[in-house]
Amino acid sequence: MQQCLLTSVDATKKLNQQYTFVTFDLAMAKIAYNIIWNSPETFGGVVVNLGGFHTMCAYMAALGRMMTGSGFEELLIEARLCAGGSVMQVMNGKHFNRAVKVHHHMLDAINRLTLDAFLDSSDCAVARCDEMKALAENPSSETLCSLLRVEGLDDFLKSLNSFWNRIRDGEMGKIAQFWTLYTDCVLILLRFLRSMKENNLPEYIRSLRHLCPLMFSSDRQNYARYLTLHYTQMSTLAQSHPGAEVLLRDFAISVARSQIPACQVPLDMTIEPTLNRSAKTAGGLVGFTRNTGAYQRWCLTRHERAAFLAAVSEQTDINTDSSNSHKSCTTADMQTSKAEVKRLKAAFDSFCNPFKPSQTSADSLYCISSGYSVSAEVEHDLLTYVKSGETATQSFIADRIASKQKKLKLKNFEHMSVKKTLTSSKQKTVRVTAERNILGHLLTAGKGQDVDFYKLFAYPLNPVPWSLVKTDKAQLLHAMEAGTDTYHKSPHELPFNCAVVVDGNAMLQSMSRLPDTFGEFALCALKCLPKAQTVHFVTDS
After folding, report:
1. Average pLDDT score, the chain
2. 127 with 67, same domain?
3. Which residue, 62, 9, 25, 31, is CA-closest to 266?
């Protein structure tokens, strides 16, 4: 890291630039900060910027922690926005593009539910005028200007804003108040994303401050401390580094890789697609990086290979960077997004619409998919989630030189699950969690399907049987194989009238040379299959 900083400082001097700007993720930024603080004479002109891409991933993970167990996951599965296996990656902020899309669509669906509730409670003619419908069907600058000229629009917007504020104050119930708190957090994320897409430095600094409370609330201590420190340094940059703001406004927090307006990419996000797409090799980067010679040759030649790839893409007219419109603004993508938002609204109606007083209870906060109410302690923590984080942020800014910051340990829906610690025969401690929502899910599914609950309650309602939690599950397979006389035979010695299950993934991994085409792979797989009356070739998705 020190050599990286020295190289950056030398490059800055050759360009006759006064300050050096470096962008890292949090793990590297912590090391860079220590080096800069220990050597202020050498690195006094270095400004460290936390990568926006990794910051947004951490913020979405904090937002996912707040929403865990609230019915958020079931809504995504019901609306077919995510499969069951990828929901946790969205909640953890690992799948960046999918997580941003999910939160954006969820915000749109909640806004539409709120608008429907507002129109039901008030008789406003502006909301049903032709100009409003034209803007909804064909959003453009012309339809927007036509709507702005409608008489009474200001009164309509003021009334809608007042309606939102009443929901935030809890007048429509605690469940509506909680989901409105979620929309406010998503708006902060989208403002931060927009500031980087436009390279808007003032908005970027303001958004950094708004990201901090949720980091403290979710006990993400490293990001909470260093993000607050980064905001403090950026907001006082004019005093500590005079003239640095002028340089920062010129593509210092994001870069443009295409001609599409307002579509710039964070610096740390730009590096990763470059490595993964423009300079990737057969077999990936993991296989050869342990070989020092191969790794050094790759470092010396990868930029030339990336240039060749760009030239070939340009000659074959497959370069997509020449477009002047964003992909999400195409007609097909807009229609797809509209259909997904409609499915989300339908999912809310099938579970519980937080903004319909007839479907909700104003006295309690509960999971909208199972109807399970939370305790008073969890309810207080969730409804003051951001407020508690804001208090911690202000306290940390006031005395940020303190070495330790206590975790808030706020509770969410996940804390209502029954947890039990078991000890296996090998003295290994296993902690299992029983989900209370399973019964609520079954009752919901029983409305439209014929479910025999008398037969259902004969079995334990938990995701994994307790007998398989702390035992060696491989013993079950050995017990099944021990009863057959073909266990020790090779696949080609089996009788013809038996059924064979072939692990396709294991076959694929065992191949010393992967074929070039699917046809060749199919021939290799068929040659390896045993001769039997029934053969099941099983792989994952």
Report:
1. 82
2. yes
3. 25
